[in-house]
Amino acid sequence: MMIHDILAQLTQVVALGKINKNTPLPADMLGQDGASELAFRALEQGITPQAILNDGLLPGMSIIGEKFSRGEAFIANMLISAQAMNAAMEHLKPYFASGEIKSTGTLVLGTVQGDLHDIGKNLVKMILKGDGWEVIDLGTNVSSEAFLNAISSHSDAIVGLSALLTTTMLNMGEVTETLKKHNPETRVYIGGAPVSQSFCQEIGADGYFRDPHSFAKSLRLD
Ligand code: B12
Fold first, then answer.
1. The pTM is what?
2. CATH number at residue 43
């Protein structure tokens, strides 16, 4: 199978929510390979984990997101696409996490209050860990107080905030303000589909990165 074929297939199974061979949905794909088998095979073929992620899995999530916007898919569809993406990521995890432990520093990470999207956050965790960072993952729907508590016991940690909704991204401003009030030196970085460099400046955060790789790279240069 050609490289672009298997990546295109991965995009398709993620968009359709075909998790693995044994999952019953979609009904017309019964017994066919899902995201798990295809990701495994792509790695076997020597395709890089980055290419599998960027050119196979992420476009699949965009497709289902766009369908949802047009009213052609339901929340349940987004959920099984997320499960398909996670099943594929299980195979990629060891590659991203294989960096030697250098104890570069500590990152307190979480998705802000009101927001339950965690795939992007989990990718940040995986990639930063692979770069030698200790990651304290506070999960999703994290309040300003919870970020403050975590930073209080890890005073030299940096903070990473994720948000996927135009409504919840506003909570990043509140978290940044709370943390900076406590200690103006605390560095706060933000990411997630709806946020931008100008929003970052607006809320007084220290940096915006559109993906975990550029975040990790910039921290390496610090
Ligand atoms: C999967 C999904 C869900 C799943 C989430 C499952 C999970 N465990 O995460 C479920 C079904 C739960 C869900 C629910 C909802 N969702 Co939703 N969801 C999506 C979908 C399809 C994919 C998101 C995703 O995982 N993308 C893949 C990841 C890897 O991308 P990412 O998160 O952007 O992360 C990348 C970067 O942004 C960056 N990054 C992310 N965080 C950080 C942090 C830092 C520090 C850094 C440096 C980088 C970084 O790194 C990642 C890799 O490059 C998107 C559509 C889309 N195109 O994004 C809609 C989408 C985000 N959802 C949407 C909506 C509306 C909802 C609901 C409100 C629907 C409803 N009516 O209930 C609820 C809200 C629930 C809540 N309170 O959070 C809208 C948001 C619209 C808006 N403008 O606000 C979208 C855009 C769909 C759409 N087109 O309408 N959703």
1. 0.94
2. 1.10.1240.10
